[in-house]
Structure formats: structure tokens, C-alpha cells
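Appendix B. One record, verbatim.
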Amino acid sequence: MTTPTHAQALKKLAADILVQTLDEDLSRLLTVTMARARHDPAISADLAAHVLPCLLRRWNCVLQAGDDAASPLYRHKAAVALAILLHRYGIADAAIAARADAGIDALNDAVALSDDFHRKTNDIKTAFLRTPPAPLKRAPGLPDSLTFHRAGDVVSYQLDGRHYAAYVHRCASTNQSPVIEFYDAVFDHVPTIEELRDKPARGRRFNDGSVRIEHLSVAGMKFMPDPAGQVVLVKACVETPPDNSRLGKRVGLHVVSDIFDLQESVDGMFAAD
């Protein structure tokens, strides 16, 4: 029996958008991290240590979700896809591999996938979960910045179990990189639009002590619904953005960011909370 390639094994999961999103997330992270590694030997010595924490802060929104947010079978598929894609890009993680191993068994027990997947289970486990990956020789390249979000969307953004809300003002260019502004609020759940009606905009504090309007264009904030479960649409076609009249004038048109840089932005903007 011929061992499937990474692409063939991923195709058998019958979760194309999930796989595409994970693949693009890893490509984005690895391209940026490997560029930084050219100037920092510590990064090149352990790419995984600089990639996995950011990746998991996003994908734990699915991997650690309850059944009300993501079904067990979807979580199993996410774990398996993550392990196979990490192997493709030269990264091994024992905990992720073990979870994927159990996920494959659970998918087979539930007869959730094809007979061909079941027949090739041992080959998939041996090739991608138990065999060390080949080191990545070159960066995979940045994916596109396409988005399905539109001006007037209000979204919830989850990070480390906390939920933040943001308003989409526009796209940075045609159907690319939504430009968002956060509400000044933090929740332990996905907020409703009613909970946001009286919430002003959250600004960014600068070194001179001023707090200014902060707009961020976010590459990688693409599909709706988000396969990672991190970005959730609260309501579309909201005409009124959060009030930012108390904040200082923003610096420039917007800050160029991506779905992973956004983690650091939120950490900084909401540090006092």
C-alpha cells in the first residue's frame, strides 16, 4: 500500500476550508518568523518555539472549545490537520501528535471519514505522527489577504478565553485586510450587539501618554465563519461605529497588521484590564 502524501492525507479529512486556513496561518507565521531568524540565530535554532505559541493562541479557540462552539469531530479533524501540516513544514510536537493520534482513532470509531482513510490509518500515523519531519529549507511564502468581511460587520475576537469586540470600517483594498477598531469592552462570552451599543472605542496609549484612535488592517482575517473559531460575526450591516470622540487623532490611516500581530496589539491595548 502506498503511503499518502501530506496533501493526500489532508484531503481525506474532507475539511478543505479548515485545512486551507491552517495552512495559510502556518505559511504566514513561518514566512515572518524565518525572515526574523536571518538576524537572530536563537529563532532559527528553534522555529517551533517561536511559531507554536502564536498558532495555538488562535487555534485553541477550536481545540479547547466546548461542544456548543465546535463539535468533537471538528476538533478531532483540526488536531489531525494541525499535526500533518506541522510535519509538512518541518515541525514536530509530541503533545499535538498524541492528540492527533487519538483524533484519528475517534474519527474512525465514529465512521466519520471514508473507508480509504480507515485503511490507511497506520500509514498516516507512521508517516506524519511517528516519523520526524524533514527541516524546512525555505519559507513557504505569504498567502493572500482576501477577506469575506465587509464594512459594518461587528465581530468578536477571542484570545486566551477573553472576548473582545471590533467594528469593521472598510477594507484596506478591494476585498482585502479588513480595517477594524476595537470597542472598549472585554467579555467572558461572545457579546451581543445590545451589550455593545453604549461601548466607546478603545484607543492605543502612546509613549507620550496620549491615547489615540487605533485602526488596524488585519491580513488573514479571511473566512466567515472563521474555521479557527477565533473571530465570530456578532452582527452585519451596523451603521454606527463605536464612539471615538474622546480619543486623540490617529497616527496615519491605519496600522498594517495580521491575524497573529493582532495578539500583541490586543495584549498591549487591554493590558490595564
